[in-house]
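To close the section, here is one more complete example, presented without commentary so you can practise reading it yourself. The ligand is pantoate.
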Amino acid sequence: MQVFKTKKELIDTLSANVSTSKSLGLVPTMGALHKGHISLIDKANKENNTVVVSIFVNPTQFNNQEDLEKYPKTLEKDIALIKTVSDQIIIYSPSIKEIYDGNVASENYNFGELASVMEGEFRAGHFNGVGTIVEELLTSVKPNKAYFGEKDFQQLQIINKLVQLKKIPVEIIGCPIVREENGLAMSSRNERLSKKTRNDASFIYKTLQNAKIKFGTKSALEVINWVESEFLKKENFKLEYFQIAETTTLTPIEKKIKNKKYRAFIAVFVDDVRLIDNIAL
Ligand code: PAF
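Output:
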């Protein structure tokens, strides 16, 4: 496995490896890899001649210092897991200094409403941090395709907007959510849940599935009220938001409009771990 710590080493290797006729895929991650990441890496590996997986816990996208400190760092395990897909995959694991060169700050983007709702509302500055690192990775690695999971659906739409704003020539590929057997969306944060809580957390996806059924016959407001009342009954769950929004603009729904596509989004604290999920309606 080739593991690079500096941009120069990575770029030198890529320019030697990738001729213009071949395709390069990038899978940006923050490490602590699980089956959700592996599905992205696997897809990238099938669709490209060369694949780079970046592993970088990006400080500027954390609005909570404790969350950043608790973020699991498991590089050796991650490398071993990537190797199960292919030992030809290139790993880029830079330091904070390599990326930010002493100025650990985000660029200010104009993502419009996409960045002011849901995660944008509850995690101040988060999407500027995501935009900063993703722009840095896309412009230095210069992939033909970059892969992101739909669990972070709002992030995916922000990245689509980023490449449009900055005119970055890359195809952004959204990949379906991978779930644990009980329905809980795979996330590095699941590791912080006790066995019992991890089991209880299946309630989040079950509620989304029921909300989807109700959305067939009830108004958006009725569905929102129903979800909120369900979470009030659960002692160790604290619902941060449940929102139904139009799929591409993420404009929160006021009234159902025929032929528009909607998605339901949720953020919940289970004990002190913040989990997010979403479902197409
Ligand atoms: O989804 C993530 O893991 C991160 O937000 C990303 C896209 C790797 C940027 O740090």
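Once you have examined the tokens, check your reading against these statements. Strands lie at 2-4, 24-29, 50-55, 90-92, 145-149, 171-175, 237-246, 262-270, 273-280. The chain has a mean pLDDT of 95.
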